[in-house]
Amino acid sequence: MNTEGLLDLARGGQFEFVDLRYLLFPGHWHHHSLAADVLDGELLKAGVAIAGGENGAALHVRPAPATAFVDPFLQHPTVAVSCDAIDANGRPHRDDLRHVAVLADQRLAAHEVLAGLRLGATLQFFVFDQASFDQGINHAHCRVESREGIWRRGTSDVDSLGMQRRGGAEGSDLPPADGLHNLRAEMAAGLAAANVGVAFHGPGPATGGHQQIGLQPTQLLRLADGLAIAKYIIRNVAARHGKVASFMPLPLAGMPGSAMPITLRSAPEASVTLVDGDGRLSDVSGRLVAGIEAHAPALAALLAPTTNSFRRLARRAAQVGGQSEADSLTLPIVGLAATGDGLTCTLADASCGPHLALAAFGQALIDGCERLQTAPAESVLRPIAIPARLEGALAALRADGAFLFNGDVFDGELVERWIGRKFSAEVAMLRERPHPYEFCLYFDA
Length: 445
Prior knowledge:
Strand 5 and strand 6 (about 80-85) form a beta hairpin. This protein has helices spanning about 5-10, 40-45, 100-110, 180-195, 220-240, 285-305, 305-320, 355-370, 390-400, 410-430, 435-440, and strands at about 15-25, 30-35, 50, 60-65, 70, 80-85, 115-130, 130-135, 140-145, 200-205, 210-220, 245, 260-265, 325, 330, 335, 345, 385. About 35% of the residues lie in helices and about 20% in strands. By secondary structure, it is an alpha+beta fold. It is built from eleven helices and 18 strands.
């Protein structure tokens, strides 16, 4: 949708509000609803002034018409649209994270070799029937429940019919074993209605309501916007049915976690080839793989940005026969796509902010294409070492963040703010608190 289309939609009399949504550091989405008949061309150009800037200053948000969709969850007819945050002079606001993806997308689109590269992603997530968690001075607990969980099969609960999936190889079971097919299809249909291209949907590899929805390959910025819309729609469809969707990477012990595999493919009209007919990587693919692998420890701080992310990665290392050591995990993170015509990177999960994560991923691809040596053109790619914990990934980001600054996509202040925030608000907080499993280990020591 272009600017004229958004204005026509807002002024057509069918909608009461335009909901302006904007992404600010450290990755929180905010919104501000504007009466539909107020929106005009000047506001689209200059931005809408709203409260919420630093030191009480007004923050301006400028709608990106291509992201507009009819929000099906709000009682009053509303068009939702993602925005760029700008200051009073029209410059990108220092806290606006979407702008980083805008710059990365522009750089990738202008690249002589990689302009035809397209990125896709698969969102994996759990749908639970109930969730409870808390942390206090003298207590800590977490519990999730799902009628789909294999642990429910032996109970006498009236809603347990013994059809729970074990996960793993049973991921292709038909309904009624796939008990959330209709819910998942409703999510996928909602994405399509919001102009987010869906490639497939199905149950995930774990028990307990694990789901996955694949998004079609597209340009970097469009995928980032689409992933943000997808998480919103998935959560709200689940809530509509009295359930809760979680993108937490590893909420269930002993189960495969939720990844967000990123796929690389060439647009049909692109001249670059990623994989030849014999399943061998092209020279360009080799350089892309080299870029991902060279910067994987730093990328992990943005693509797998939670302490829980590294529990998922450790679990995956164990599943694929990798190594888990005190400070590092060794596992493959790049391989051939299932269709054989592209590449898949499995480092990311959906706890990441897609705009920062995909921007960093794009920077690594360009750096590999331009600077690094060609990786071996093999159909099976080698395991590599990444940090075993978030604090190690943050240290790697600080040591190897220069590739992010190429083309002025990221700046040093943003990276340092990200590292400081993640360490103080997450790593340090977990260090200070006893883990519930420590009671199992040490209470009677």
